[in-house]
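User: Can you help me understand a structure? I only have the sequence.
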Amino acid sequence: MADENQGPQASRRRALMLGAAGASAIVSIRPALAQTSASVMHCEIPVPDPGRAGSYIAADGQLVPAGTPGAFPPPAAPFKAEDVKRAMAGGTLPGADYESSRAYTNYIRRLQSGTSGFTCFASLQMPRG
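Assistant: Let's start by predicting it. Here is the structure, written out as tokens:
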């Protein structure tokens, strides 16, 4: 190797250059992560999925036909991720009482890949650094 032939000075110089490159990468990645985290909190989760509009939401989060006793009508607008995160931590969703909020959050917990809002909900589950 060239560093071995040039002595400890070349090895130190190379280590310093690698360290500087690593620090530069960290500085440029952190703002990108912060921006991603902020944008995740602005995504929306429709309840129910637009493909199932008109369905009501049972207390356990399952979709049921409109007018089913004990089920809740869908909310007027999708929920923002920030509101869903708060509700999952024990709060309630905006415009919903405790029982309907619980039914809506149960629906959201049951979302599966391919369903509108799934990616948004999944991103809330990712740990943030």
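Now, to help you interpret it: The chain has a mean pLDDT of 80. Residues 8-40 form the longest helix (33 residues). Let me know which part you'd like to focus on.
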